[in-house]
Amino acid sequence: MPDERKLCTECIDDGSLKERLQEAGTEGACDFDPGHDSNQCMTVDEFAEEADRWFRENYQPGADTMEADPDPDRDRVFYGTEGEPYEDIFSNELGASDEVLKAVINALPDVTDHEIMQGADPFYTDATNFEPIEVARAREQADQDEYWFANRYAFEWEDFCKQVQFSGRFFGIKERLDELFGKKDEYGEGPVKPLYDLPAGQAVFRAGF
N or C, which end of the chain is more exposed by having fewer CB within 10 Å? Predict the structure, then answer.
């Protein structure tokens, strides 16, 4: 059933949703606390739509996590998801009374019972944690940066091998090796050396597999 009760700007803490209520609400009397002075108000349903837009713009289902048991004697893995329940996120954002919080959460737009029967999945569910989209993107970028950092030499070495085999076999080889390994005096030590000085006239045979 529609919830036409009105909540006002005094019902919630300062934040993005209060700003939306101040901008889009109309002056009126609060139905949740008669002691609140005349403020910008919205019906619960109207405010829940604003809250839903704000939430979907800023949060997404949390990524799956996998963590090994800290006890080395136990071969177990714990699975979970990043983030926290949507009720906790709204509770922290709104800072409202239990009555207001419950009313807003119950009015959040989601798939209908009929749509669920047809196979649709509800967005707001206790089985899902949610995390800030900004946090998720930062983590994904960090993971990507770490992947490229860990593999950049392998990729560069692969490009070098292709160059030596198919395009620039005789030119720019030392410069490419310097880019990969550093200057000769930096990597010329050790039992296995990547570069050897050959005397003039030394025959070199190229073997293939």
Answer: C
For the whole prediction, is pTM greater than 0.90?
A: no
Residue numbers in the chain where pLDDT is lower than 70: 149-150, 153, 168-174, 176-196, 206-209
Are 45 and 93 within one domain?
yes
- Give 4's contacts (C-beta < 8 A, 6+ positions apart): 43, 44, 45
Mean pLDDT of the chain: 83
- 69-92: pLDDT as tens digits: 777 777 777 777 889 999 999 999
183 within a domain of the structure (yes/no): yes
- Output the CA angle 86-90-95, nearest 5 degrees: 150
**Phi, psi at residue 32, to the nearest 5°?**
-95, -25
CA 57 vs. chain centroid, Å, equals 13
Contacts of 96 (CB under 8 A, 6+ apart): 7, 11, 12, 13, 104
Residue 100 lies in a domain: yes
The answer on 142 and 118 residing in a single domain is no
Q: Give, as one character, the DSSP assignment of residue 127.
A: T
Domain region containing 18: 6-62+89-125
What separation in angstroms does the CA of 35 have from each of 25, 27, 87?
19, 15, 26
